[in-house]
Structures are given as structure tokens and as C-alpha cells.
Amino acid sequence: MSDLITTVEACFNQKVYKIILSKPRTKTKDYHKIVISQINETYHLEKFTATQVFNENLVTGQLIEFLNQALEYDFQQYNAWDDQFEYIIQISKKGKPSMTRKAVKEAPAKANTHNRQKNYILQEGVVIAPLVDMGIFTKEGKVVKTMTDKFRQINRFVEIIDDEIKSLAPGTELNVIDFGCGKSYLTFILYYYLTEIKNIKVNMVGLDLKSDVIDRCNASAEKYGYDNLSFKLGNIDAYESSFPVDMIITLHACDTATDYALYNAIKWDTRLIFSVPCCQHELNAQLETAELSLLTKYGIIKERTAALITDAIRGSLLEACGYKVQLLEFVDLAHTPKNILIRAKKTQSTEKRKAQALAEVENAIQAFSLKPTLFQLLETDKLINSNKI
Questions:
Q1: What is the pLDDT of residues 321-330, one digit of tens each?
Q2: How far is CA 192 from CA 181, 224, 228, 244, 348, in A?
Q3: From CA 86, how far away is CA 88, in angstroms rounded?
Q4: I want to staple 179 with a disulfide (CB 3.0 to 4.6 A). Which of 91, 250, 251, 259 is the partner?
Q5: Stretches in the chain below the pLDDT threshold 50
Q6: Terminal CA-to-CA distance of the chain, rounded, Å?
Q7: Is residue 280 left, alpha or beta, with left meaning phi > 0 and alpha meaning psi from -120 to 50?
């Protein structure tokens, strides 16, 4: 330990302004990398997990203690830079530290503020007509101050989709359906992102039950020059697509409307699914369990339990049908409790994995006396092979 402290302090005393901790000692460690930047008299830490980044600020004394602990228990490598050199500390399997120094021609840039601007996919300063009409951008393409949170939420939605399609080559063609599109704010943004930013050829249809909404959306699409975006009147459960569907979007489709949208996506062998469920009333009315009555005795607890079980069942049913599934936080819980987004991608899943996912659903159905719509639709159409129910 004394050798490590001496090595870290000797390196740190070179007035380094950038540090990266890497090579976790075990795969179970919370963070796979930590980036540390000097900003004025403090140090800003960015702690990277597989899916998130956590931030922390430390003063010099705290940072040296943090580095000693991190290198003793969590990481095997330390890289740091001053104006002339890169310093490298490596920890052997026996815990012995060694330090090397090398001159660098091009060192990392220095950070000068804690409030570095996030590199959003939808850029401020670019006039995006739907965002102007939504009141999020000014006519000059600047974010309206009171709409900053909404701008971040929309970018988060685009980022979630971008994670799945960023590998697609320009010129790729996508057929997209937005079930329950409503006023279609995000539909227009998605079309802009796919066509203007990703240069993907898109045929997109928005479906809703309100004729006045459909007329208004078609007028807006024409105004924006979105030639391959159209809106149609119709029910999700009765809709038949006239073309192969590559992507399904369903945002806040109420209660079982989400189930019919997911059922259609599975039936059509849709490659990508993005769904934000809403108003999960169906299972709330059914939920019963003698052994876990704690979860049903209080109305608000029962409601939230039912909502979580509803989306967990949907996710596992998608897995049972050959999808890789993630349930993500769409917006911060402070903005809305309806903040789960189901992201699913068709994969070559094993029969064992499909059977396991289906068994998880069947166990939940039996434990809570449930009859989920999506399960019944898939079972009736023989898209799943249920043996227990």
C-alpha cells in the first residue's frame, strides 16, 4: 500500500490535468472507466457504467485518497497527462505498482467548465421546423429557456432509437408505423432525424382514431415537405399493413392498445420496436395473490405493481418471440411516472432462451391470477407455445 501511495503522489505532483482509470480488476465492478478532469481548483469525475455516466466533483486532497483506493481495489491502470508527458501506472496481479513516463505530441484537451454542452443529436442552432412549431425552438433554432427539459427529453428519445440504427448505412430503407400517433410531435422529429440526419429512406405511417388530428398532421407533413410521411384513421387492433414493417413506434398507447401494437409487430416479424406504455389498467383489475397480499392491499401500491408486472410480462413475451429486449427510463421520474420505454430488436435467439422467457411469464400469470391481452393474442395465433396455462 505504501508503494502505491508513493507512486500515485509522485505522479500526481506533476500537476496533471487529465486522468483516466481503466482495466477493472473484476467484471463485477460498477464502473468500467473513470475520467477525471481538472477544472479550476477542483476535479470533475465521470464514472462510466455499461449504460450510464455518473458525475462527481472532488478537491485535491479528496482526489488523491480516491485514486489510492481506486487503484488498490478497483482498477489496474492509471493514465495521466500534464503539459509535456503522459504518466502511466500499472498494477500487477500481485498488487505491485509500476510507473512509466513518455513524452506526448498531442495531449488531451483541457476542460474549462463543469457545464460542458452535451453533444445532442438534434443540434441547437439548426432550424428544425417541427421543434419551432412545438414552441421548443425559436425561429432562429435556439432552445426556448422554459422548454429546455422538453428538448432534453426529445433528444433522449432520439438517442434511444439511434443506439439501434446507427450502424445502418446511408440509403437504407425503413418502413415505419407509429401506432396511436396523436398530435405526432415525436413522429415528425423521428422522420426528420431518419431522413435529414441519418439519410435513411423512410416510408412512415401514423395511425390514430381522431379524424381532426389525422387531418392536421397530414397538413403539417405537407407543410414540412415530408413526402413519405402520411397519417391514417384506424384502430391499432384492426390495422393491416400493406407493406413489410421494419419499425414500430407506440408512445403512450393507452392500456391494451399497447398490447395490440406489440402483437402486430410480432406477427409482422418487425425488426425494431420502441414502445412507451401508458395506463396499464387491465392487470390492475385482475391482480390477486394470497401469498403476496402485501402488494395488493394498498391501492397505490397495487396500481404500481400491476403497471410494472404488465411491462415485465410484455418484455418477456417479446423475448419469447425472439427479441432482444431492454426496459429503459425514457424521461426522468420527476417529469412523469409513465417513464418506461420498451426497446426490442429481432435476433437469432435460442429456443432455450425463448422457453425460459415464456416460463417467466407463465409463472407470473399463475402467481397473480392474470390474463394478459398480449399473452392471449400470441397464444391464440400460436406465436408462443404455452404448456402450463
A1: 999 999 988 7
A2: 16, 10, 11, 21, 31
A3: 7
A4: 250
A5: 114-116, 332-336, 389
A6: 60
A7: beta
Nearest to 342 by CA among 293, 274, 292: 274
Q: 86: which 3 cell numbers?
A: 503522459
What's this model's pTM, rounded to 2 decimal places? 0.69
Read off the DSSP letter of residue 195.
I
Bridge pairing between strands 42-48 and 53-59: antiparallel
- Helices 257-267 and 299-320 cross at an angle (nearest 10°) of 10
The residue written with cell numbers 433554432 in the block is 141
> Is 198:227 a contact under the CB 8 Å cutoff?
no
- Amino acid 364 reads A
In one letter, which amino acid is 56?
E
Question: In terms of Cα–Cα distance, which of 224, 130, 111 is closest to 183?
Answer: 130
What residues does 43 pair with on adjacent strands?
38, 58
